[in-house]
Amino acid sequence: ISLHRVVNSQQFTEQFEIYYQPVVNISSGKIIAAECLLRWHSPELGLVSPTEFIPLAESIGLIMPIDQWVLQSVCKQMKIWLDARISDLTLAVNLSVIEFNQPDFIQKIVKFLKINNLEPQYLEIELTESMIMQDITSAIATINKLQSLGVRIAIDDFGTGYSSLIYLKNLPVNTLKIDRYFIHNVDQDPQKSAITKALIEMAHNLNMQVIAEGVETEAELSFLRQKSCDAMQGFLFSHPLPAAEFEKFLWNKK
Ligand code: G
Ligand code: G
Ligand code: MN
Ligand code: NA
């Protein structure tokens, strides 16, 4: 498969590209973060979605070099943006559970921060409930180490997995991201409204900031504002953008 060729020949930059989706604070309107989302421009297949090639990469043993390339590239990009005073946002990275569970995962994070001379608070790692629950003891240990380094932690796609609230209570997590399933038509659906409202309250009581994902309409946004949701991302504000377009987007919002 051609995915093998790209990874094994280390030609990531020729076919892989990281897109950045801005996350905006709902009350201030300020951009506070960006989620880094990988795209594969395959010469044979065209633009391939990560929902297709990530599971493939996981099954054929290629996910680790891909995720490591993403981590390194994101740290490098962040340092460039900081030095050029283009952005001082948090960059949130998605990882495979395979990479997250590697015994030397923390060492790699330390290495990428060091190589790029990047302070840890600019990096946020997005973990799903299933990634945490797969091996809860080692996940808690890893999360604690990340926190003591100063790297931020978000729980992604919240509400769609099986997480134990007993563990959530004790996890040092900065951010809870409500899955877009709950946000879609949240203003019209009484069940989604009830769940979203409860999740926002729970996260605040646990001292986490809440990001609503997949916000597409003004009505959804005004519901979230009314329920004191901290931040949002979604097509209403911006699609994920290539780095150069993301820079322009930041510039225009200034
Ligand atoms: O970007 P959407 O545009 O299609 O992303 C789909 C899914 O792919 C999301 O669940 C996201 O977490 C995952 N994903 C995006 N970028 C990466 C990445 O760099 N590494 C891993 N492991 N998953 C990613
Ligand atoms: O699983 P994770 O939350 O990491 O995946 C983020 C996914 O959500 C990406 O595929 C991204 O392109 C997609 N996304 C971002 N904003 C929106 C939106 O407003 N609507 C929809 N349908 N998808 C979105
Ligand atoms: Mn995510
Ligand atoms: Na999500």
UniProtKB/TrEMBL annotation:
Coiled coil region boundaries: none
Looking at the record, the residues that make up the EAL domain are 1-254
Keywords of this entry: Phosphoprotein
Q: Which GO terms describe its molecular function?
A: cyclic-guanylate-specific phosphodiesterase activity
Give the domain of life: Bacteria
Q: Is Phosphoprotein one of the keywords UniProt gives this record?
A: yes
Gene Ontology biological process terms in this record = phosphorelay signal transduction system
- Descriptive protein name: EAL domain-containing response regulator
Q: Which organism is it from?
A: Halotia branconii CENA392
